[in-house]
Design a protein that fits this description.
Among the domains are: about 80 residues, Sandwich (Immunoglobulin-like), CATH 2.60.40; about 100 residues, SH3 type barrels, CATH 2.30.30. It is about 15% helix and about 25% strand. With about 350 residues, the protein is α+β, with helices and mostly antiparallel strands. A hairpin with a 7-residue loop joins strand 10 and strand 11. The chain is built from three helices and 18 strands.
Length: about 350
């Protein structure tokens, strides 16, 4: 064929397949449009069905002949006669809808929330401690004092029991089942306040009831350090003011005792140190500037010739609010005069008197 000339075998096969598919498609379309319009084959009926069909057909023809008018007058009368017309009664269907039981526009109000009362269980009673702590000795100490021995009395103490001060166990000496003792260091009573004392075992299985150890603040000296009188031999004199009597000034030196309790142990331009002779506690009084009339302190009672030093109005350069110390002007010593320090007076407590040569 000319159509297949000059074609490769693959192209020939493709062309043949395309022709075959086109023929099949055309055949199926022709069958769909032309084959469905052909008349169907007559159905075969049996004798009973034929007889029934004939009878029913005859009855229908007889009815039509009897009902049809034979003349035009009968036909006209039949058309004008309205007696065979029957009224059409139409009953529409009713749909029953239940009425709403409440107002559809009312919003929903939830019922109030019932709050159940909170039942607080009764507190569990604290169990009785197995160890009994009855008393402390001493029960009251002063702060800033040295270490001391604390003795506790009670019952049911064991050799492993230890005295505990503010949850700090101390090395404890077991005396008997009713008494223990321990040394309390000075660091634990450096501040005033209450300390909690208990007796416990190392495993905390046995413990006692707590008792307070009162640490009281020590008494303070009621004086103000307002001046100093310097001397050549360094036996300076400090000028103090009594807080209870501000008009009275006291001149004291090292070794003097104030108020039968505080001993002067150190005097300097910045501070004076007083030692409590009862508690062995040192108190430091800083220098406080006290200005009187003309910048000079008044004479002390019983010592009219001894006065406080003069204080200059200006301070130290670069250090504000700190007064500059001005030693008193001393007169030149005359060779013929005797030394005041060699007149047999006592220089300080514990220092023997010097005798004249």
């Amino acid at each position: 064929m000319k159509l297949l000339e000059g074609k490769t075998p693959a192209e020939r096969n493709k062309l043949i397949v395309a022709i075959v598919l086109g023929v099949l498609a055309f055949s199926s379309l022709a069958y769909m449009f032309l084959g469905s319009s052909s008349s169907p084959k007559p159905k075969t009926q049996n004798s009973n069905s034929n007889a029934n069909t004939k009878n029913s057909t005859g009855e229908l023809l007889d009815r039509k002949v009897a009902a049809s008018p034979s003349t035009p007058e009968q036909l006209r009368a039949q058309v004008n006669d309205l007696s065979p017309a029957t009224p059409v009664i139409y009953q529409h269907a009713t749909y029953s809808v239940p009425e709403p039981g409440r107002n559809i526009f009312a919003f929903y109000v939830p019922p109030p929330v019932v709050v159940k009362p909170v039942v607080i269980p009764p507190p569990t009673p604290t169990p009785t401690p197995p160890l009994v702590l009855a008393s402390l000795s001493p029960s009251n100490v002063y702060a800033r004092t040295g270490e001391f021995t604390l003795e506790v009395s009670g019952d049911k103490f064991t050799p492993t029991s230890a005295i505990v001060v503010d949850n700090n166990p101390l090395p404890t000496r077991y005396v008997n089942a009713q008494q223990l003792s321990a040394t309390v260091p000075a660091s634990m009573i450096s501040q005033d306040g209450a300390r909690q004392i208990m007796v416990k075992t190392p495993d905390n299985m046995l413990y006692s009831n707590p008792m307070p150890l009162m640490v009281t603040a020590p008494p303070l000296p009621g004086y103000l350090y307002i001046g100093i009188i310097g001397k050549v031999r360094y036996n300076d004199t400090a000028v103090l003011k009594d807080k209870s009597n501000p008009k009275e000034l006291l001149n004291v030196q090292r070794g003097d005792v104030l108020g039968s309790r505080f001993r002067v142990t150190s005097i300097s331009e910045r501070e004076i140190v007083l030692t409590d002779t009862t508690l062995r506690i040192k108190h430091t009084l800083p220098f406080i500037e006290e200005k009187g009339a003309g910048g000079q302190a008044g004479a002390t009672q019983g010592n009219p010739g001894r006065r406080a030093p003069l204080l200059e109005e200006s301070g130290i350069p670069g250090i504000p609010n700190v007064p500059r110390y001005q030693p008193p002007i001393r007169a030149e010593q005359q060779p013929a005069q005797e030394n005041d320090d060699d007149d047999g007076e006592e220089l300080a407590p514990g220092i023997p008197k010097k005798q004249k040569p």
